[in-house]
Automatic annotation (TrEMBL):
InterPro entries: Cytok_DH_C_sf (IPR016170), Cytokinin_DH_FAD/cytokin-bd (IPR015345), FAD-bd_PCMH (IPR016166), FAD-bd_PCMH-like_sf (IPR036318), FAD-bd_PCMH_sub1 (IPR016167), FAD-bd_PCMH_sub2 (IPR016169), FAD-linked_Oxase-like_C (IPR016164), FAD-linked_Oxidoreductases_BP (IPR050432). This is cytokinin dehydrogenase. Keywords: FAD, Flavoprotein, Glycoprotein, Membrane, Oxidoreductase, Signal, Transmembrane, Transmembrane helix. The lineage of its organism: Eukaryota, Viridiplantae, Streptophyta, Embryophyta, Tracheophyta. One of its GO terms (molecular function) is FAD binding. The keyword Flavoprotein applies.
Length: 532
């Protein structure tokens, strides 16, 4: 009985501590609610040329992306009319300090796949609103174009063609913004010759995570320049870019041929990316169990041997299509035809599957948009897109193909599976993009579209399960694969992705965005919230 007072005292202490905790949490909630409610008014008070939107329709629009799988609502959407609008907004959030939960995401045309351009409870910047200063083309000995970070590549194409010029490197789809592709890499069938789009930039204007506007190039602020290229939006927002140009062709000879043998297919692809005066574009794709394949091609391509092509059967087979393009002007037609015929004669494709066509340069580069229009008309564009893009070392591509195209992927009717080699010498290892450590590596892209509400092989769950099996195999077999347009949900996974580059990536973040305000949707760094 003599110990009872001590017990009673302990109970009182526990009760007292609990009361204090309740009081603290109540105050904290009140403070957070007060801060949250005061933020919109502080944003509204900023003297901007553009404006903030807090409308539900606007917030819902930017909470979605092309991937159509992740939705994260911001507090506000900034529609900037000047670079200073972006800088002032970020500077304001920076000045709020670590006590503010606000983050900032730059959104271009909304073609992210997994919410990378979203900012939960933060600010999304609509980069397409940034239209000033206007695009400027500089012709001359070393031509270039100065463009806004929110400009679409399709608009750049049309404007530069007025001067007989064109950018050198593209993506397969042109309705993307400059800032978006340069924050990743920008890869297509021209990359073997000119490198990705990030290898074709002379100069950038950047707004850093502290709100500072910085001009940079290889010679000026070179570390920031290389950090931002392929930097997944972590170090700054690209508000202006100077893109290298070259003389533009007017026509394209577009060719497709089929292979049944993967070794012959890759050998010819690798031969072509090093051949002199061969093709300007080299890609390929995998076809598994497609019915009437060549008949489908006839709507756009002409078979060299119509009789033999009509006898070819693709049903139940795994085939590999080599897709080539040769740029030219009409006065060069005869010479180009001879060159193409010479290079094709050295290939080991199935003879009856040679298809060709001639299209304008614009129609070739904008070919995916034509498919987009058709899909939109059928309501099949705004569906989930669980895409998976991989960089695979050349020495591992046959192992990968044997297992993935032999056992995991059983059909390709959900969307194209691209596969083509890239020449590492055309990439700058000072940028932030992560690629395999071999002289040649392959881009393999599984570009599936999921049918809503389907539980079959065309449904979202099946495609995600297939992607998971592919990634698990790559990890289990130690293939040295790197994701392109990467998506991870833990910092440890990001650390593994960056490998030896992780430390410098982290250091750059601490310099250019120390509060982790920018691009929270990438889920690389978490903004630390401090309470004073």
């Amino acid at each position: 009985m003599r110990y009872q007072p001590f017990s009673l005292l302990t109970e009182y202490n526990i009760l007292f501590i609990r009361c204090l905790m309740v009081l603290f949490l109540s105050c904290l909630t009140i403070r957070l609610n007060f801060c949250s409610s005061s933020i919109p008014s502080s944003l509204k008070a900023l003297p901007l040329m553009g404006h903030f939107s807090f409308e539900e329709a606007d917030l819902k629009h930017v909470a979605r992306d092309f991937g159509n799988r992740y939705q994260s609502h911001p507090m506000a959407v900034l529609h900037p009319k000047s670079v200073s609008d972006i800088a002032d907004t970020i500077k304001h959030i920076w000045n709020l300090g670590p006590g503010s939960h606000l983050t900032v995401a730059a959104r271009g045309h909304g073609h992210s796949l997994q919410g990378q351009a979203q900012s939960h409870g933060g600010v999304v910047i609509n980069m397409e609103s940034l239209t000033v200063p206007e695009m400027q083309v500089y012709a001359g000995e070393s031509p270039y174009v100065d463009v806004s970070g929110g400009e679409l590549w399709i608009n750049i194409l049309h404007e530069t063609l007025r001067y007989g010029l064109t950018p050198r490197s593209w993506t397969d789809y042109l309705h993307l913004t400059v800032g978006g592709t340069l924050s990743n890499a920008g890869v297509s069938g021209q990359a073997f010759r000119h490198g990705p789009q990030i290898s074709n930039v002379q100069k950038l204007e950047i707004v850093t995570g502290t709100g500072e506007v910085v001009n940079c190039s290889e010679e000026q602020n070179g570390d920031l320049f290389h950090s931002v290229l392929g930097g997944l939006g972590q170090f700054g927002i690209i508000t202006r870019a100077r893109i290298f140009l070259e003389p533009a062709p007017t026509m394209v000879k577009w060719i497709r041929v089929l292979y049944a043998d993967f070794t012959a297919f890759t050998r010819d692809q690798e031969k072509l990316i090093f051949a002199e005066k061969a093709f300007d574009y080299v890609e390929g794709f995998v076809i598994i169990n497609r019915t009437g394949l060549l008949n489908n091609w006839r709507s756009s391509f002409n078979p060299q041997d119509p009789v033999q092509a009509s006898k070819f059967k693709s049903d139940g087979r795994t085939l590999f299509c080599l897709e080539l393009a040769k740029y030219y002007n009409l006065e060069e037609t005869l010479v180009v035809n001879q060159e193409v015929e010479k290079h094709l004669s050295h290939l080991n494709h199935i003879p009856s599957t040679l298809f060709q066509t001639e299209v304008t340069y614009v129609d070739f580069l904008d070919r995916v948009h034509i498919s987009e229009v058709k899909l939109r008309s059928k309501g099949l564009w705004d569906v989930p897109h669980p895409w998976l893009n991989l960089f695979i070392p050349k020495t591992k591509i046959h192992h990968f193909a044997e297992v993935v195209f032999g056992n995991i992927v059983t059909e390709t009717s959900n969307g194209p599976v691209l596969i083509y080699p890239v020449n590492k010498s055309k990439w700058d290892n000072r940028t932030s993009v992560v690629i395999p450590d071999e002289d040649i590596f392959y881009l393999v892209a599984f570009l599936a579209s999921a049918v809503p509400s389907s539980n079959g092989s065309d449904g979202l769950e099946h495609i995600l399960s297939q992607n998971k099996k592919i990634l698990e195999y790559c990890e289990r077999a130690h293939l040295g694969v790197k994701q392109y347009l990467p998506h991870y949900t833990t910092q440890e996974a990001w650390r593994v992705h960056f490998g030896s580059q992780w430390q410098i990536f982290q250091q750059r973040k601490s310099v250019y965005d120390p509060l982790a305000i920018l691009a929270p949707g990438q889920q690389i760094f978490q903004k630390s919230i401090a309470f004073s």
